Amino acid sequence: MRKGFKMFSKSKACSKSWFNVLFVFSLCVLVSVGCKSKKPKVDDGSSVTPTEVGGTGQIPEGQRDENGTAITDTKLDNVLFSYDSFQVADTEIAKVQKVAEFMKAKPDVKLTTEGNCDERGSAEYNMSLGEHRALAVRAALVGIGIDASRIQTKSYGREKPVDDRHCEEAWHKNRRVDFALYLDKPQAQ
Amino acid sequence: MKILVSLLQKSNVIRSQRIATLQNSDKPNVFARVEGGNPLPPRFSRKALAIAVLLCGLSAGWLVGADVTVEKTGTGKLGIDLSGLNAAGGNAALFRKVLEGDLNNSGWFTIAEKGRAGILVAGECADSGGDISITYEVKNQAGTKKYLGKTDHEAGANARKLAHKVADDIVFAVKGVKGIASTRIAMVGKIGGRKDVFLCDADGGNVTQITRDRTIICLALTWSPNGDSLLYTSDASRYSDVYMINLNDFKRRRIMKYPGLNIGADVSPDGNRIAVVLSKDGNPGLYVTDINGENPMRLTRMPRAAEANPSWAPDGNQIVFVSNKSGLPQLYTTTASAGGYTRITFRGSENVAPDWGANGKIAYVSKRDGKYHICVYDPAKNEDKQLTSEAADDEDPSWAPDGIHIVFSRTVAYHSDLYVLDTMGGAPLRLTTIQGEWTSPAWSPR
């Protein structure tokens, strides 16, 4: 009896998966047919705007706040990353949202996202990886509604660890994006 | 501006040091490490080693306490005897010591005792108090062939320079190839926790500090093909920008300060273009600019990937670079005119820091068995060789202009020094001896 039941359930699962495949296939056919029938008409002389998919967008020129005044009395939690990754993890999104709230409340504040890596890997590659992390956090902030012109990026690569030890715990803390806050560039006297 | 040049090291005092080898029976590449038992910064360990070897009458070997292990190195190296060269006292003695080191490290010769050498150098080196001059001859042992007969001179303060010149002349006269003794190596020194650009001779002597910015970021050193300029990336002005220093007048220009990251500039072989990684348009990507860092053109478009560390092929058509497109950093090549990319490394979990030599071969770093090692890939033969395998993390290889030697940074127990590797054989020799962390070496052109 038990054996028979098992076999029955297995075959049911199989047939279910086959049904799924069939369903997805037919959906694809429907969609492709639909696309074909609704081909958009492109007028002669129209132009397209190439956009990088998955990119983090341009940093505006001339926005480097080299002469801004650093804000040191506000500390925002840094965003942590996994090894060789630049994705803002779901568990870290809340920190980014908190930064966005702060930025919305203080319109005269500008921000540099500072990307950092753990000590492993080549110095030069880690500079690019750190920048990639800084850009990913910047993109997340822009996605929440912060004006892109208020956010610069900087990479420290593996050169600025918060924990000097050489262990997984330290590496975890060092793979991060810090938030450096600045008051808008003061007017030239 | 801020650029000051100071001669950190003028004298060449040999301090006796305890020299030990890190023995590893199953690995052929045994290397010597100077133990830090001496509180003073160890200096000129290579010279100490070379002379120790000389005194022991060994063509090649390492001194290990009272034991002597003979290392199989430099097969095909010619014994060269300098005992016929009179050079005693003051700058003449310095000249002789530097010349011996240069010949030993040339990759072609081993300093040998009288009667055991195939090549004899005889002559007179005199230090007049002002100038130092040398008249010398280079012959084979039987005296039947004269390779070179020459007189040369330099100001007394330039005894090292004169020795480097004579070493290169001897290498060329006997072996018919251009030596590297007169070349220089640019490097980053981290002293007291902050970084600056330094220069030294190819033998590690004559260390000169070039910048005094004390920055957190200072890396990606490279030379212009004519050797007149040094390019590097530094955050001296808060962000990572590309600087160019003219080595004739020591004037410095910030040639790239685009928004975001500016890093890893490498000048094309014709001297007209610069490959560089910029992040001004999004992901850190590969660009080519003109020689002033202007008119950047994006070469690669890899969605969701960061690129790094471009290096031009000697033909000026291709560029090798690092991308984490596959999830971990690997080497890719692209054409400087058309873009596109081809992955070229598949062994090793991470492959980084490529330097495409004038010999057509790409030196790079590969992570194998948890450590970073120096490897060389020959695209013409599709041949890959791992050159180091020590329990150390090796980084940032840079080809010497002879296409035979490679300088790289080695980190053991979280301490970094520069080492020189002879790709024809032999263990890497330590180049830097001043206390500090030494990284990002770049070997000058001739």
Describe the overall structure:
The complex is a heterodimer of chains A (189) and B (446). Chain A is of the alpha+beta class. Chain A has two domains: 2-36; 61-183, OmpA-like domain (60s Ribosomal Protein L30, Chain: A, 2-Layer Sandwich). Chain A contains four helices and five strands; from the N terminus they run αββαβαβαβ. In chain A, strands 1, 2, 3, 4 and 5 form a five-stranded mixed β-sheet that branches. The radius of gyration of chain A is 25 Å and the shape is globular. In chain B, helix 2 (90-105) runs parallel beside helix 3. The model of chain B is unreliable at 1-74 (pLDDT under 50). By secondary structure, chain B is mainly beta. The radius of gyration of chain B is 22 Å and the shape is globular. In chain B, strand 27 and strand 28 form a beta hairpin. Chain A binds chain B through residues 52-64, 66, 84, 86, 121-125, 127-129, 131-132, 135, 152-157, 159-160, 166, and chain B through 216-217, 219-220, 233, 235, 237-240, 257-261, 263-264, 277, 279-284, 301, 303-304, 306-309, 322, 324, 327-329, 350, 352-353, 365, 367, 372, 395-396, 414, 439-440.
Fill in the keyword field for this structure:
heterodimer; A: 189 residues; alpha+beta; 60s Ribosomal Protein L30, Chain: A; five-stranded mixed β-sheet; globular; disordered N terminus; B: 446 residues; mainly beta; five-stranded antiparallel β-sheet; 10% helix
Q: What's the average pLDDT of chain A?
A: 76
Under the CATH scheme, which class of the largest domain in chain A? Alpha Beta
**What's the order of the H and E elements of chain A?**
HEEHEHEHE
Fraction of helical residues of chain B? 10-25%
Low-confidence stretches of chain B: 1-74
Would you tell me which CATH topology of the largest domain in chain A applies?
60s Ribosomal Protein L30, Chain: A
How much strand of chain A?
Answer: 5-15%
**Global Rg of chain B:** 22 Å
Head-to-tail CA distance between termini of chain A: 92 Å
Radius of gyration of chain A: 25 Å
Low-confidence stretches of chain A: 1-16, 27-40, 49-56
| Strand segment count of chain B | 34
The number of helical segments of chain B is: 3
Using the 3D structure, state the CATH architecture of the largest domain in chain A.
2-Layer Sandwich
Report the count of strand segments of chain A: 5
